[in-house]
Amino acid sequence: MRETTNLVAKLGKELTSKIFTLGELVELASRENISLSTLAVVEAQAKEGKSRDAILSGVYAQFEHNLRALDLGLESGRSFLLGTVGSDLAGAGENALIGDRFINNALVNTLGTEVGNHVMGLRPCAGTGDSCPYTGLLKAMLQEGYDEEQIRFSAALILKIGSIFRAGKRTTGCNMEGYGAGAAVTAAVLTDLRGGSPEQAARAIVLAISPTIAVPCTPRVMVSGLCATHIGGAILMGNLAANLALRTTLPVEVDVDVMIAMAAKVHVDAAPPITKINQDYMLPYFKKNACVDAFVTEDVKRGEADATSKVLAKSREEVRAMLAAAQPLTRTLGDVVVGGSSIAVGSPTNMARIANALVKGEITKVEIELTSDLFKRRAINVPAILMAAVTGAKTDDIDAYRGIFEHPKMQGLPVTVTNVDTPEVQRIRITATEQSAYLDSRNRGGGRVSIVDAQPSRETAVEAAQKLGIQLAE
Fold first, then answer.
1. How confident is the model over 291-345, as pLDDT tens digits?
2. Distance (Å, whole) CA 89 – CA 99
3. Is the pLDDT of residue 385 over 90?
4. Which of 372, 424, 367 is CA-nearest to residue 390?
5. Beta strand pairing status for 437-443 and 425-432?
């Protein structure tokens, strides 16, 4: 049995002296050489003035309704969005979705909980979404035979982390509930459950949150099927993150508090515009209720029907345009790009290659302007830009990339790198003794470049790009 009474006596005053962030709790747990789940219970005892057993009983009691919803979802429940996916999977064997019995059970339980949610309601945390993987994970622990104490300590850690997301969620956005919060909690619990340190749990949380940033929610919860991969993805992402933290030396330098704060901020700022786009495209697939629509004016319904009828045709033409710009199958992949990113490094490098091709004489100065996200990644793209601007090196020249600052042509060469607060902008001016060059371009994925303006002329820049085999974009 985990002894917490002495820890409460030792840490109680410290824990109640201020509000500890998750990152600070990780530091405290590490200092005391205890698990993160143990500290979650100790903190609750100190703050609520309750015994260990009272905290553990109260924590587990919060899941009773959701566990009933889960059972219903696995047995006979039918969801208006997910159908009978719970019962479909319940009898499909221990490897129905993935070849790991414990994780498979957690996935099936998570989906079953969501079905039960739609049938009888669910007790929410940040949203009803994250309560599904929380409940699915606890049920899987029961099925795996973990002892009652371990399950209740894990439940405490679930609620500790979930409470942060609950407070941070202010608008629609699955990154702050079902997918994001669910992934973060799963990562922390599995790391803790498998004997990981508090620092490993924090790294796992950071890894799990990262892919969920800016994932919207509302359109998906009115469209059949789509929620299943978000909710189930929380379990998969959390498991992956936990295993990476436990089994590898993968460097994760972002503080867990910074990651959560960013997720909350992105959620508030990005969710509305992203959600609007999703709604525009998903409108034809939204579930409707004839009784409710009877209260809506005919003009509104006609407008929606008109918009709906245009979505498929519009989408087909948009995809057709993408395919028209696509390369043949035998040349689909772009050139090799050093530095780890075709958009952050490949496109700026190709911009510089084009400018270099226009230059005549000795290069005497290089001026680089980058949009904010490129500027922040200057550690990886500026060496590549300079190797291309000064030597004409291609994006795959790893020796030039690594050695550009020692290259003879770089010695004493004036270089400026400035930030431009306009999306997609990447510009370069190369001053030379006989003919200078300037390229105003926009950043595109796959190492592509969109040329806006150039000197001596845009036409010569386009011609140079074509000779170099650089793919231009609109």
1. 988 999 999 988 888 888 899 999 999 999 988 888 888 888 878 888 877 889 9
2. 14
3. yes
4. 367
5. antiparallel
Q: Return the sign of the alpha-carbon dihedral for residues 46, 51, 52, 53.
A: negative
In contact, 370 and 358? CB cutoff 8 Å:
no
- How far apart, in whole angstroms, are the C-alpha atoms of residue 371 and residue 426? 6
Query: What CA dihedral angle connects 32, 62, 264 and 226, to 10 degrees?
Result: 130
Which strands make up the sheet holding 425-432, listed edge to edge?
Answer: 415-420, 363-371, 425-432, 437-443, 449-455
- 442: helix, strand or coil: strand
Q: Which residue has the tokens 């035979």?
A: 145
Pairing type for strands 415-420 and 363-371 reads parallel
pLDDT tens digit sequence for 412-437: 999 999 999 999 999 999 999 999 99
- Which residues neighbour 385 within 8 Å (Cβ) at sequence distance 6 or greater? 348, 349, 351, 352, 368, 428
Nearest to 442 by CA among 454, 420, 424: 424
For residues 188 and 159, give the distance between their C-alpha atoms in angstroms, rounded to a whole number.
11
Residue 211's CB is within 10 A of a number of other CB atoms, namely 15
Length of the chain: 474
Is residue 215 a contact partner of residue 180, using CB atoms and an 8 Å limit?
yes
Are 470 and 353 contacting, i.e. CB atoms less than 8 angstroms apart? yes
Q: Count H helices and E strands in the chain, helices first.
A: 20, 5
